Amino acid sequence: MGKTKLPPFHWIHVVPIVVALIGGIFIGMNLPRADAPAEAESTQQAEQEPQAPEARAAQEQTELPDLARKLENDPTAIGDADAPVVIAVYSDYMCRFCVKWANETLPVLEREYIDQGKVRLEYRDLNFFGEGSQQAALGAYAAGLQGKFKEFSDYVFEPGTVRPANELTAEALVEVAGDLGMDAEQFEKDMASEKVAKAVAEQQEEATMLGITSTPAFVVNKRPILGAQPTEVFTKTIEAELESLNE
């Protein structure tokens, strides 16, 4: 029997002081914005440079409230519900840094931690880039209702570059659902349903209340990581969490 929890953003309305603190942490880190335009090559390169070691160290020492849902039937989660480390992933399907993370870091985490039952990913798909982002988020949740969230996400991120908006329309995604072995008719109904729209809106609200204004953003148990940082930043944070839980 899965655990029953309120949607994670509800605690925010109960503890507004904590929310202000969290928002300050995220905004105060002043990390590269994934949605900032790359107006010149030098600007684009600066956006992709990892944090300085001292900034990462400060970030890793910060603790936030527990954002994990740990629901057995969570449509947008990957990994065991009882995994000791839960990573909340705030992502956008049209964010180039999210694509980078999905292609470079995620496979390592899957192989070394998720498949071993040590880590669970709980996605909060966001909409920072307009209609394509929104439609993809709706499609991801609808796919999750059929147990195909990972397959859907892998498809969207698979090219290694951001898919054009015309590949993320409702019509295009219904076709993709069929190709991925889903009930395409049910997928189309779910994607257009009030239930799915509400779930995606709640994810957006949670990110907004936390002060997350760019993607990707992560909370590893209670430790925040912003941006598509090098894979070692994630593995070191995960190892530190696992070690602390074994003490």
Question: What does this protein look like?
Answer:
With 247 residues, the chain is an alpha+beta fold. It has a single domain, classed as Glutaredoxin, CATH 3.40.30. Helices cover 52% and strands 10% of the residues. It contains twelve helices and five strands. It has helices spanning 10-14, 16-28, 41-48, 53-61, 96-104, 106-114, 131-145, 149-157, 170-179, 184-191, 194-210, 231-246; strands at residues 77-78, 85-91, 119-125, 217-220, 223-226. The protein has a five-stranded mixed sheet with strand order 1-3-2-4-5. α7 (131-145) packs parallel to α9 (170-179). The relative contact order is 0.19.
What's the SSE blueprint?
Elements: H1 10-14, H2 16-28, H3 41-48, H4 53-61, E1 77-78, E2 85-91, H5 96-104, H6 106-114, E3 119-125, H7 131-145, H8 149-157, H9 170-179, H10 184-191, H11 194-210, E4 217-220, E5 223-226, H12 231-246
Parallel strand pairs: 2-3
Antiparallel strand pairs: 1-3, 2-4, 4-5
Domain Thioredoxin: 52-243
Region (Disordered): 37-60
Family: Belongs to the thioredoxin family. DsbA subfamily.
End-to-end distance: 28 Å
CATH first level? Alpha Beta
Strand content: 5-15%
Strand order of the largest sheet: 1-3-2-4-5
Number of strands: 5
**The CATH topology:** Glutaredoxin
Question: Which structural class should the secondary elements be placed in?
Answer: alpha+beta
Overall 3D shape? globular
Q: What's the mean pLDDT score?
A: 81
Percent of residues in helices: 40-55%
Number of helical segments with 4 or more residues: 12
Q: What is the number of independent domains? A: 1
H/E element sequence: HHHHEEHHEHHHHHEEH
Transmembrane segments: 12-31
Family: Belongs to the thioredoxin family. DsbA subfamily.
Protein name: DsbA family protein
Region (Disordered): 37-60
